[in-house]
Design a protein that fits this description.
This protein is an alpha/beta fold. Helix 11 packs antiparallel against helix 12, helix 11 packs across helix 17 and helix 17 runs antiparallel to helix 18. The longest helix is centred in the first third of the chain and has 46 residues.
């Protein structure tokens, strides 16, 4: 009988089969008796669970165990002695593991040679442990059963934890995609959109790789020599391609993946680069090219697919918005030219006004979107002149008092024509038409507004209109010398004009001169 009880001490290494070289289960034995370590190793030799072997680690005190557990987070099971440097050293270790190290995954089997020191019921109720055994009852079979049962529990816990982390990563990834897509939806130009896409894609997964956003004109199944690949935005070494076509040398490396992406209408993952595919229903093929190693998990790949779908939607919306805005601008210029055609003051006045307005708006710190809206709306500043009789509108020389009153009504007339419009550009045009003859000191018309009660767009157009009127000939006056125009505007700071707008104008003189040069009147008066 004794011989049978001692069988579990025998080393049966020779009987073990070959175990696959997988990551082992780390088992920490904590006991101040060296013989216990030796016996435990013999009992657990050549045992595997789920094809993974056991790796036995040894500690000889509670302090040593805590030091190891602070450094290592890959220990699945701890066989922990109760009585070591103190009678309750093992119990203290168990409490520290759970409450201070916050390690709730490691499985703990308490073993004691002195059951009376730490009664089982008290220990089980008071400590977060998984089993409590007297050393005398742990035969080889029972130790085997206890260890494998506990490892199964650990494996289940880690599986759940892994799934939780995947779900959390997916949740964070989806939040990133939503945030990224929201940013992209706010972009107002194709180049800004392309820049936003690349920045958000790199922020999601590709932090350091160089990237390109390209538009393919043609290439329904694969790239040909006739197809044009235009770079809308690029980073790193590709930045010099921005706004240009990608040459054959740069295309050579990516062409097989690009052809595959276009033919299959899908994203392509190559070992050293990535080609993201998206296409609006009625638009050209768009590609996101990441130059660099790409190693994505399945959840990350799913996020990229979702991101590209959102990019396609955003691009389609941007194209539709652009088409609507282009149509609005075309109508605005046509309406403005109708007004100009009634006047002998024809030429490129409305084009210059739009460019002046944009330059001043940006110089004053307005964002790109607001500056573009002011630029688009500015040609309608004199739309109310359609209601002014020809005898007043085109009278050579100065207007008399009665004629001046009639002419001044054009600001109110323009506002009434546009005030009920829904598009933002036309609402801005209504404000500009109404307020571009107001003056900073309150002496303007039609309402005598003063200071910042005048909309910033009205203050901008007020200066731009005066500058253009003075620098170009009209039916009632010749063009002024540039120096006299600048002096007059500078002297009007704080009375006629907002001082900040005057300062922005003086800083922007080179830009104003370039605009005048670009948009010269073809038939000067």
């Amino acid at each position: 009988m004794a011989a049978q009880d001692d069988d579990w001490l025998e080393d049966d290494t020779d009987d073990a089969g070959t175990v696959a070289q997988l990551e082992p289960w780390n088992v920490l034995v904590v006991d101040d008796e060296p013989d216990i370590h030796h016996v435990t190793r013999l009992a657990l030799t050549n045992i595997s669970f789920l094809g993974r072997p056991l790796n036995i680690l040894s500690c000889y005190s509670g302090r040593e165990a805590i030091a190891i557990l602070k450094e290592r987070h890959d220990i699945a099971l701890m066989l922990l002695d109760v009585v070591m440097e103190t009678e309750d050293a093992g119990l203290k270790v168990a409490r520290i593991i759970r409450e201070e190290l916050h390690n709730h995954c490691i499985r703990i089997i308490l073993r004691t040679g002195q059951p009376g020191v730490a009664p089982e019921r008290h220990v089980i109720e008071s400590y977060d442990i998984n089993d409590y055994k007297a050393k005398t009852e742990l035969t080889r079979d029972k130790l085997y059963t206890a260890v494998l049962g506990t490892l199964r529990s650990y494996n289940d816990i880690m599986t759940i934890e892994h799934q939780r982390r995947i779900l959390e990563a997916n949740r964070r990834g989806l939040i990133k995609v939503v945030e990224a897509s929201t940013t992209i939806f706010r972009q107002q130009s194709i180049q800004q959109f392309a820049q936003g896409v690349l920045e958000q894609l790199q922020a999601l997964l590709f932090f350091e790789q160089e990237a390109l956003f390209v538009v393919v004109n043609g290439g329904m199944t694969a790239l040909t020599h006739d197809d044009k690949v235009k770079v809308m935005y690029a980073t790193g070494g590709y930045q010099n391609y921005c706004g240009k076509e990608l040459d054959d040398a740069a295309l050579l490396r990516f062409k097989p993946s690009i052809d595959e992406a276009i033919a299959g209408k899908r994203t392509v993952y190559a070992p050293d680069h990535f080609v993201g595919f998206f296409q609006a229903p009625h638009g050209p093929v768009n590609l996101l090219i990441i130059d660099g190693p790409v190693a994505l998990s399945h959840p990350d790949a799913d996020l990229i697919e979702l991101f590209c779908k959102n990019v396609a939607i955003a691009y389609e919306n941007l194209m539709l918005t652009k088409e609507i805005e282009d149509t609005q601008r075309s109508i605005i210029y046509q309406l403005s030219e109708v007004v100009e055609s009634r006047s002998t003051d024809t030429g490129k006045h409305i084009h210059r006004m739009a460019e002046f307005a944009y330059v001043l708006a940006r110089e004053l710190g307005l964002d790109e979107q607001e500056a573009q809206i002011i630029k688009a709306a500015s040609p309608l500043h004199d739309i109310g002149k359609v209601g002014i009789p020809d005898r007043v509108l085109n009278k050579p020389g100065r207007l008399d008092e009665e004629e001046r009153k009639i002419m001044d009504t054009h600001a109110e007339l323009g506002y009434r024509m546009l005030k009920d419009a829904k598009p933002r550009i036309l609402r801005m045009a209504a404000t500009i038409a109404h307020e571009h003859h107001e003056k900073w000191d309150g002496s303007g018309y039609p309402r005598g507004l003063k200071g910042e009660d005048i909309h910033i767009a009205g203050r901008i157009i007020a200066l731009a209109d005066v500058f253009d009127a003075l620098t170009h000939a009209r039916c009632y006056k010749p063009a002024w010398p540039p120096a006299d125009v600048i002096k007059t505007i500078d002297e009007g700071s704080g009375t006629h004009f907002d001082p900040r707008v005057v300062e922005a104008f003086l800083r922007s003189l080179p830009a104003f001169e370039a605009i005048v040069e670009q948009y010269q009147d073809s038939d000067p008066v």
